[in-house]
Design a protein that fits this description.
- 2 copies of one chain form a homodimer.
- With about 230 residues, chain A is an alpha/beta fold.
- The first copy, chain A, folds into 3 domains: about 70 residues, Arc Repressor Mutant, subunit A (Orthogonal Bundle), CATH 1.10.10; about 110 residues, NAD(P)-binding Rossmann-like Domain (Rossmann fold); about 35 residues, no CATH class.
- Chain A is about 45% helix and about 15% strand.
- In chain A, the strands form 2 sheets. A 7-stranded mixed β-sheet of chain A has the order 5-6-4-3-7-8-9, with helices on both faces. The first copy, chain A, has a two-stranded antiparallel ribbon with strand order 1-2.
- In chain A, strand 5 and strand 6 form a beta hairpin.
- In chain A, helix 1 packs across helix 2, helix 2 crosses helix 3 and helix 7 crosses helix 8.
- The longest helix of chain A is centred in the first third of the chain and has 19 residues.
- The radius of gyration of chain A is 20 Å and the shape is globular.
- In chain A, about 45% of the residues are buried.
- Chain B binds a DNA duplex (22 and 22 nucleotides) through helix 3.
Chain lengths: ~230, ~230
DNA sequence: GCCTGTGAACAGTTTCACAGCG
DNA sequence: CGCTGTGAAACTGTTCACAGGC
């Protein structure tokens, strides 16, 4: 198969990001090669499923041996488009936004916040994660000036749609939304929703149904891989 | 139909939580009834899919009219098990953990943090979101004393597995993990993973493949995010 | 022997079309 | 009529079993 042509299923893409994280850890600890079984164990997935996921990138292992850790890591990074740093802007620097801006994990995984924005005069000018918080009026200039294509929304729900509109108008093509509202964006703009309350409520349901219905114990499989939203 | 045990698909459960949020907003603005089309629009899903989701709760609409807003909201809340407040514990009060502890959205959606824990002496004793941060040594007593069954992990990756072990040993049955590691838990314990870097990397992939691949690729056909719509 | 890569069976979801009721 | 509820079809994603190369 041609490595780039076939559309990679979104569920596979999400797992590739997990494999990338695990491979990074293995590389740091000096491992040279790894089998699908071991990698699948560390990522919490089925070995056959992992091999099927990787098959979307074309053959990239050695039969009878396994996968080259650094080579596979680089290949996945290239497919995901995180082989070099990508510019992101973040709007809303309340508790959650500040936590995101200050989260070192992003920088080491190919994302750099090139602009932090808030509407509150009290927050404008503060330095968070090494960057100053700017006024919303500068959003357009920064997005066009840095060619940022990824935007993160961590505002209150009431203003999230308006921010989404401004981001897309400025040229942002991909949005990660933490506000608990369903955003509407123009065609061609991807929106991913992370709703923390939804996650907790799914847990609450599992919790409730485990106690209420004492049918056979829930599935014996242990790890959980990122789901929806 | 039997209201308790007709095995609701997990994808449906996640959407029920979204409908619940939308219905809450509608109820607050005084709406008495709503059609599947309108509710689906506000939730960002397909109307037929929404009706199928609701069909798992048994008939709960009026044909030719729509759904009773407050009635449907209460019914979904009951099914999800959030009709009354549930006790949660939170471990790790760095930036993200503090944001979670201080997030008012949880309290209004049926979750109450009954214990905040950290290992750092500098954080122990601080009051965050109205609650004092406790030492990890008190974790077991608080979990058993409050009968908390839900735990949230917002620690660094290195200690997340150990915290997971302690939570499950203390009796926690459901875990929401923000640390970028795949946790292993005993059978019967549900773990949900929220990995912010994974979310961004999926966006990066969509972003990259939207523009014609510079690699070897040429085709840039990309599926839309989100399930139905 | 080992382990990867993959077609084929399987399971779960989404969509469609329409029956059924107010 | 309109809108809900639902079986059946279409689709996507997952698991299995084994073929194929090291």
């Amino acid at each position: 198969m041609n490595p780039s042509r076939p559309r990679i299923p979104e569920a596979t893409v999400a797992r590739l990001a997990v494999y990338l994280r695990v491979l990074g850890g293995l590389a740091d600890s000096g491992r040279a090669s790894v089998s699908s079984g071991e990698l699948a164990g560390a990522a919490g997935v089925n070995p056959a499923g992992l091999r099927k996921d990787l098959s979307h990138l074309g053959p990239c292992g050695v039969r009878g041996v396994g996968y080259d850790v650094a080579g596979l890591r680089d290949r996945i990074a290239r497919v995901l488009g995180v082989e070099r740093s990508r510019a992101c802007v973040l709007v809303g620097l309340g508790n959650l936004g500040s936590a995101l801006a200050d989260y070192a994990g992003f920088g080491s995984r190919g994302f750099e916040f090139v602009g932090l924005f808030d509407s509150s005069p009290q927050r404008i000018g503060q330095v968070i994660g090494g960057r100053p918080v700017l006024a919303l009026t500068e959003l357009d200039d920064v997005v066009t000036g840095t060619a940022a294509t990824i935007g993160v929304i961590a505002t209150p729900a009431e203003v999230a749609q308006e921010i989404c509109d401004r981001l897309t108008a400025a040229g942002v093509r991909s949005i990660l939304n933490f506000a608990p509202v369903t955003l509407t964006a123009p065609a061609g703009v991807d929106v991913r929703q992370v709703d923390l309350s939804v996650e907790l409520q799914v847990l609450a349901f599992l919790d409730t149904s485990r106690d209420a219905g004492r049918d056979t114990g829930s599935d014996a499989r242990v790890p959980a891989v990122g789901g929806m939203a």
